[in-house]
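Checklist before submission:
- one chain only
- standard amino acids only
- sequence pasted in full

Submission:
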Amino acid sequence: MRERVDELTALRESVHQGPDPSATRRQHDKGKLTAHERIALLVDEGSFHEIEPFRRHRAVGFGMEDRKPHSDGVITGWGMVEGRTVFVYAHDFRVFGGALGEAHAEKIHKVMDLAAAAGAPLVGLNDGAGARIQEGVTALAGYGGIFQRHTRNSGVIPQISVMLGPCAGGAAYSPALTDFVFMVRDTSQMFITGPDVVQAVTGEKIDMNGLGGADVHAGVSGVATFAYDDEESCLADVRYLLSLLPANNRELPPVAHSDDPADRTTDALLDLVPSDPQQSYDMRAVIAEIADDGEHFEISPTWADNILCALIRLDGHVTGVIANQPAVLAGVLDIHASEKAARFVQLCDAFNIPLVTLVDVPGFLPGVAQEHGGIIRHGAKLLYAYCNATVPRVQLILRKAYGGAYIVMDSRSIGADISLAWPTNEIAVMGAEGAANVIFRREIAAADDPAAMRAQKIKEYRSELLHPYYAAERGLVDDVIDPRHTRLTLIRALDMLRGKHADLPSRKHGNPPV
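Returned file contents:
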């Protein structure tokens, strides 16, 4: 027995080191960590339990029968992140370039099934070259099994993809099915077809980072949620994100003790937000003032930044915040902003995270490009997401809320549980200037002094329909609050709604706009 145990120990160490020491050096020379080093950064020290470390492929032909390294290019297992179970798979680029074959895929299938059965998050550390060409259709079928499991687990357990190398084809589609995609600049890329194929087919010449690098996907395509300069900071934020999420859709997010008093007054809000609806300001400062200790974890911060989506804590409880950003495009809703916010609403609803919506929106972005791009159906995605959400929902109108954008930003009419407003709120079909030009155009045109008449009619419209208590008088706003009491009011409203239960109609699923 002792000899066998010594043999096991030596074999396990050999598998850990990889089949070729030079492969480890090449990985480090590229500024990349090995799969085991990445897992060690992700999970609590000494908590990782590997499964199937001795697995080998069964493929023959093309010299594969002579190359059968243990692990088959992927490390799978589970560990703890801040004492909570998390399942992990990590491509090992040192073995077949991390390419996916039959055995490789079956290992991932197993850990995905275990994550679903245990009701725990799944993190994929992706550094693979796509399907293993030598194994043909069995490799493609392996990806199909991964896609099916990602879809089946969507909204059941949190699924996070971390891109740590060049990932093409199926290796790019798999992360696109998960809840969050993390990328590292210069070392990770995602694309369906690489630069060589693009040039051959279209004549466009572009390098790997220009085609599918971290900044491209985090700021242009919206495929990536986050982009980082190095693997260490990337994996540290994966750990932080996991601390904000429940283990599964049957649990509430973890509650953390906060020394930030729930009744802290937010005096700074009196000066952060100008009363003039034409003046800009940074909504991030408002979110920071409300949140526990000013901390907020922003989702997709560099894509569609005319709307902000963030996870914060209020009195220790995780809360999702959707907010218009007046500092970018005046905070209008456009195609990308609608998509970003809709997906975030769906994520929070799936994982029992209450929603706070901060409204300061002039409307939807007008223009031919937006209309031809489908702003109607894309805006409807956000409307559908809110209408379908059953978690506690609180709306707060800071300043302007005009037209259809007011309705879409979680108004009472589409199901917000509580609607609040500051004394600076203006809720109307459109701004006073535009409304006066439409309603009183004949009077203005016929006046001896059109400019003076226009100013008079604007004032008249504002006093009749845009005063801060108009919506409150009609029950569409529950209360007009002092901005200094915003934090406490939100905390009390969410505490009251903590036990909310709402049933959706019996159906297989809805048919949301696409």
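Reviewer check: Residues 44 and 207 are 37 Å apart (CA to CA).
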